Amino acid sequence: MVKGKRVGIVGAGNVGSTIAYSLAMLGSCHEIILRDNKIEIAKGKALDMSQAAAAVRSHSIVTVAESMADMTDCDVVVITAGSPRLPGMSRDDLLMINAKVTREVIEGVAKYSPNAIVIMVSNPLDAMTYVALRESGFDRSRVIGMAGVLDSARMAAFIQEKLGYGGGQIRASVMGGHGDDMVPLPRYSTVAGVPLSDVLTHEEIDEIVQRTRKGGAEIVALLQTGSAYYAPAKATAIMVEAILKDTKQIHPCAVYLEGEYGFNDVVSGVPVMLGANGAEKIIEVTLNETEKAMFAASCKSVQGLIDTLNANKFFEGAK
Ligand SMILES: NC(=O)c1ccc[n+]([C@@H]2O[C@H](COP(=O)([O-])OP(=O)(O)OC[C@H]3O[C@@H](n4cnc5c(N)ncnc54)[C@H](O)[C@@H]3O)[C@@H](O)[C@H]2O)c1
Ligand SMILES: O=C(O)C[C@H](O)C(=O)O
């Protein structure tokens, strides 16, 4: 438990409330502050979670901010506000609706928690991270998108399922944007340190890569009413803890690139050292030509979304 730390969570729906629950159970911080337009529901969840925290002797408390002005001086703010996709939709279909929500929310964060580190979760993730960065005026080290921890966990779960062993010993690696052209990296994935290619065939690895890319859609199709939230919430909580505890551990995160991997003015998923100051270091992994081409294609997709925002004069304040 790191005393006195405050974590704000905007959007207390499926992902936001599950992040709050996870942090409360871990006792990661002193106070978790929920903010949602559905205030009564947020209040009910906060009470329920505070009581769960008491049951496990966690001294985290869960409170509700009735407006962004009540969510002050947070160390970390997680943004999950906005719409999830439904079957048949792509994450990119959420671009304009969630960009407006993100702008509204980040203005409040910048005003009332000016020193916070922001973890963006709303989709389309890389474009929303870009919006949050631009609209907050924060340094790029303080606006970080969550996706790579989730996508890598999915890939690890699929590897375990395929192998039938190795649970807890699998390190899977996914870079690039959080879209269908994300870049799973079998070459950087291992089972107890053993390269994937030593334990799985090329065809099996390819199947895992394709399933990882569609991992979110697979769950959307099953749930029918929204998207995944247990693994996304746990992945976010891992990032929040790394920041609060200043672990300096490396996690795949979506960050604004300024020349890294040869890209500028775009957000993409890369290995990042997380610590008290947010994204403290971007690690540049050696990619082969095929991997470089896939990473470039993924950055191009994100760039396309940023171009759409520009074409709609979003950054000029269009409503
Ligand atoms: N990055 C990832 O890997 C990842 C993973 C899962 C979900 N997501 C995304 O996270 C977002 C949330 O997903 P969810 O399943 O929790 O959805 P949800 O509908 O359950 O919750 C969203 C919440 O946001 C609230 N909200 C909307 N506008 C708001 C505003 N202006 N201020 C405060 N609250 C507001 C809604 O009332 C709702 O409770 C979606 O965009 C989804 O696509 C991203
Ligand atoms: O798939 C979605 O729309 C939600 C999220 O991005 C996920 O990957 O689970």
List descriptors.
about 325 residues; alpha/beta; Rossmann fold; L-2-Hydroxyisocaproate Dehydrogenase, Chain A, domain 2; six-stranded parallel beta sheet; globular; binds nicotinamide-adenine-dinucleotide; binds (2S)-2-hydroxybutanedioic acid
Description:
The protein has 319 residues and is an alpha/beta fold. The chain folds into two domains: 6-145, NAD(P)-binding Rossmann-like Domain (Rossmann fold), CATH 3.40.50; 149-310, L-2-Hydroxyisocaproate Dehydrogenase, Chain A, domain 2, CATH 3.90.110. Helix content is 42%, strand content 19%. The protein has helices at residues 14-26, 39-55, 95-112, 125-136, 148-163, 202-213, 215-223, 230-244, 289-311; strands at 6-10, 31-35, 61-64, 76-79, 117-120, 143-145, 170-171, 174-175, 183-184, 190-191, 194-195, 249-258, 264-275, 278-282. Helix 3 runs parallel beside helix 4 (125-136), helix 5 (148-163) packs antiparallel against helix 6 and helix 5 (148-163) packs across helix 8 (230-244). The protein starts with 5 loop residues before the first strand and ends in an 8-residue tail after the last helix. Nicotinamide-adenine-dinucleotide binds next to helix 1 and helix 3.
Query: Element order, helices and strands?
Result: EHEHEEHEHEHEEEEEHHHEEEH
Q: Give a list of the ligands.
A: nicotinamide-adenine-dinucleotide, (2S)-2-hydroxybutanedioic acid
The number of distinct structural domains comes to 2
Instruction: Return Rg in Å.
Output: 19 Å
- Biggest sheet, strands in spatial order? 3-2-1-4-5-6
Please state the second-level CATH architecture of the largest domain.
Alpha-Beta Complex
Indicate the CATH class of the largest domain. Alpha Beta
Strand content: 15-25%
Unreliable spans are: none
Give the N-terminus to C-terminus distance in angstroms.
Answer: 42 Å
Shape: globular
CATH topology of the largest domain: L-2-Hydroxyisocaproate Dehydrogenase, Chain A, domain 2
Q: CATH superfamily of the largest domain, called what?
A: Lactate dehydrogenase/glycoside hydrolase, family 4, C-terminal
